[in-house]
Amino acid sequence: MNHVLASYNEAIQTDRELRESVISASLPPLFTRSYRPILLSRPIFIDDSIIWQFAEDLANVFRILVSLPARVFAGSINDYCAAVGITGALRELMTRGDDLTDPPLFGRSDAYLTDAGFQLLEFNIGTELGGMDFAELNHALLKVPAFRAFAEQHALTFVDTADVVAGVLREQAARVTDSDRPVVVLLETTDGLAHHFNFRSVAEAMCARGLDFRLGEVQDLGLRRGKLVLGGTPVDVAMRFYAAGEILEAPGGGGLIDPVLHAHADGHTVLFTGLSSSLYNTKGGLALLRDSYVQASLTADERAAVDRVVPWTRMLRGGDPGLLDNCRGERSELILKPSVGWGAAGAVRGADTNDRSWSALLTERLDRGYVVQRIVHPRLEPVWDPDEPSPRDWAVNWGVFVTPHGYAGSFNRALKPEDGTIITFGNPGTRGTCVFTFGDGPR
Fold first, then answer.
1. What is the DSSP string of 368-380?
2. Which of 29, 83, 109, 238 registers the highest number of CB atoms within 10 A of its CB?
């Protein structure tokens, strides 16, 4: 436990206002509607140097991933896709773009903090990321007198992800407009907006930071003199929030995004980011980083970054000598996941099976686009709920954002171990919170 958390836990026993600061925080209206019922009762505290080092490692992992087609596949995107399990119509759609090997650095981790440092479960590369608005909670907490005094005492600070993202979007918009309030559309697939009210909170945060930020769906777009339009309004930046699989499943399929691709290629509207970013947004990509032939291509510094943050992960392939035997023998410490896909969909923990069913599952999914990964055991965070007499331990999934400017803030989700092992808002026990940092690291 770090000294700030120890001090916080000691202080909230006598200062009820501090203990209830999340409850009393005054949040923006749409953020309140989106998240108030699912907020953790306190923020998370971490040393500056630890989080900035992790962000630097994330950036290095990104650079390695996007270099793999040239580095180990002789420039063949198709061979790279085959290696990570991207096939068929999905591959055709994701490779329609001009930034296949040079996508912009924009991503968010799903990671656990362990006693040895951060371990990366997944690296979500692209703009279809939740939590970009969560610094609103940081701002609101600092308006609560008791929390503000505590933050000043310990020199707490934070990086505002919405500020960073708004700045990145302005940089992108400057390629096509000189407006000081560029039009940016968060772009979903057909019927995608109906399922995510929290998009309105993101729009609320971005508008507050000087963007003309709107919500739209791909089927509602048009072209006017080569520029995307939504409801008659010219669009400077289309911020993609759809995934390739969602487009393929929507009425109209891949043709839905033709206007977006044409406007981007013609230089009239910027697409940030393209589906090509998703080529490197797979669990199979992390598995490649642990393959011996990829390891041999890395520099010493690159190997050190991979070793620090990427747990043992392998593609489940029949041609890998001894892999099945090892996976059978270490069942309780492994998890099986689809190489391509969102969140925890299709994941199976070996500990939730028995030897016979685990062996059958490995055989069934061999050479079918799955990875096996060593389970990471997170360091637990004691959280004192205002309505409980003592603290409870929570496991935390760290959503650390990274851009070319480095660490770009955090959106963390937490779950009590007795409520499950998959930390996602699909699990009703999951709560969200923000992060404050302390120490003498980068600010």
1. SSEEEEEPP-PPP
2. 238
